[in-house]
Design goal:
The protein has 472 residues and is an alpha+beta fold. The protein contains 13 helices and eleven strands.
Length: 472
């Protein structure tokens, strides 16, 4: 039972509300007990100060014997006020009075005060003044009685326990009503949420409130309806998803089978070349002309080997579950190395190479893969450009985006074929690609690498040729 009470929302809110209400009332009353007497004392001192100031204005315009009337009137109007008068040498003298015509008269019997308790008087104020017939400066000290302030403190202290009892009584009653009002709709919503957790949507919350709890109840009702509809759709969607997963697995398996089949097909010509090589070694028939067949064999082997390597590269990228080994790449330096890598082929085809590469261009990615993509693009541009044409390589940064543009002139791709150039083993001109040794995998590899790096890319025909753009 105790554990249930501890976990009850009503009990928690009730206890917290009682404690907070009681503390607020106690703190408020304590502050009142401290501030009211202090404020009242300050007000009394200010009133006394104004009265004394008015007295001294009158006293300074008369002689000491004439001032007795003002001092006597002040003492009669001010109850329990202690006055002390000192001459310029600091000796206490009697305050002028109508009954005493002699002035000054020294006080020889000590300071006569009405109470031996120093706390019986509030703070003492000192005033300097002179009489009309004398240049001597006198000091008047005035101390107001603290009796009224002490009486106020005592009164507040006497009613303290009565007020505490009243505060606690009101706090308990108010907290009970407040807790019941707050927790009742919350408990109803809690019951509804339990049923929702059990996938029971046959309930409905009351929506007769206009506050946040009413909005919550309305939201739960809508959520219940939507969840019920979503679960119905989810069942059919789950079946469809299962079919999609199976189809995706079949596609992946088909892709792996495809690459395996291609690799297997490549083994046949390699075996033939191997047989030719053995024939040349053994000097059998026409194979005695080694120079002729060695050149052919080497050319075919290089082509086959390149295709196998490209297939394996794609297979590794597709099947690898590991993430990219990203690093900051000096892209400008990487691009400037491209001309040196293909300089012999560029010179052989008399291609006009033009590059405009901004310094200090940096991108983030796996350096080996980015280098492979750039090499494939540059290689394609050189191989498929006619002799005497031009290639333009530009790299720059715009709005924080590094852009790479490669345009080779004298070439053209039919517009209907542009969307297919990134497909595996696709060739725009099959015969020419075969003659140039292309495998049809170059741009497919570029596409795979760029998509893994989430880079934007596009290819388009221009007036001069074909333009490839990458945005990192």
């Amino acid at each position: 039972m105790t554990g249930k009470n501890k976990s009850s929302l009503f009990t928690k809110i009730f206890v917290i509300t009682v404690i907070m209400t009681s503390l607020c009332c106690i703190i408020t009353y304590s502050a009142t007990m401290w501030l009211v007497p202090k404020t009242y004392s300050t007000i009394l001192d200010e009133n006394l100060d104004r009265t004394v100031t008015s007295l001294l204005k009158n006293v300074e315009n008369v002689t000491p014997s004439e001032s007795g009337l003002f001092f006597d009137e002040f003492i009669l109007n001010q109850n329990d006020v202690l006055l002390q008068l000192f001459d310029s040498s600091g000796c206490e003298i009697e305050v002028p009075s109508r009954d005493n015509v002699t002035f000054p008269v020294s006080v020889t019997s000590g300071v006569a005060i009405e109470s031996d308790d120093p706390a019986a008087y509030r703070a003492t104020h000192r005033y300097l003044f002179t009489f009309a017939d004398s240049d001597e400066t006198y000091t008047l000290t005035v101390a107001g009685s603290a009796q009224e302030v002490n009486l106020l403190k005592d009164t507040l202290g006497e009613i303290f326990f009565v007020l505490i009892f009243m505060v606690l009584t009101v706090a308990v009653l108010a907290s009970g009503i407040y807790s019941h009002y707050v927790t009742r709709p919350v408990l109803r919503i809690s019951d509804a949420s339990k049923k929702m957790a059990e996938l029971d949507f046959s309930w409905r919350c009351e929506e007769n409130r206009t506050d946040e709890l009413g909005i919550l109840a309305h939201s739960l009702n809508e959520m219940s309806q939507k969840l019920y509809a979503a679960m119905t759709e989810l069942k059919s969607a789950n079946e469809k998803l299962q079919k999609d997963i199976e189809r995706e697995r079949a596609l992946e398996q088909a892709q792996l089978d495809f690459f395996s089949a291609v690799s297997h097909e490549l083994k046949t010509p390699i075996t033939i070349i191997k047989g030719q090589t053995e024939g040349m070694i053994l000097k059998v028939g026409d194979y005695q002309d080694r120079n002729k067949y060695l050149g052919r064999s080497l050319e075919i082997i290089n082509t086959m080997e390149g295709m196998v390597q490209e297939i394996l590269t794609i297979s590794r990228m597709k099947s690898s579950k590991a993430g990219l080994k990203k690093e900051t790449i000096q892209f400008s330096k990487m691009l400037k190395q491209e001309y040196a890598a293909f300089e012999d082929l560029i010179m052989k085809k008399r291609i006009d190479w033009n590059e405009n590469i901004f310094p200090d261009l940096y991108i983030v990615g796996e350096k080996m893969l980015i280098q492979k993509a750039v090499n494939n693009l540059v290689s394609n541009a050189i191989v498929y450009s006619p002799e005497g044409s031009a290639i333009y390589l530009n790299a720059f940064s715009e709005n924080g985006v590094v852009q790479f543009c490669l345009e080779n002139t004298g070439a053209h791709i039919p517009d209907s074929e542009l969307s297919k150039v990134f497909d595996a083993f696709y060739r725009v001109e099959h015969s020419r690609n075969k003659r140039n040794g292309g495998s049809g995998l170059g741009l497919y590899i570029v596409k795979t690498i760029l998509e893994k790096h989430q880079a934007e890319y596009s290819i388009e025909n221009t007036k001069r040729g074909v333009l490839f753009i990458i945005r990192f």
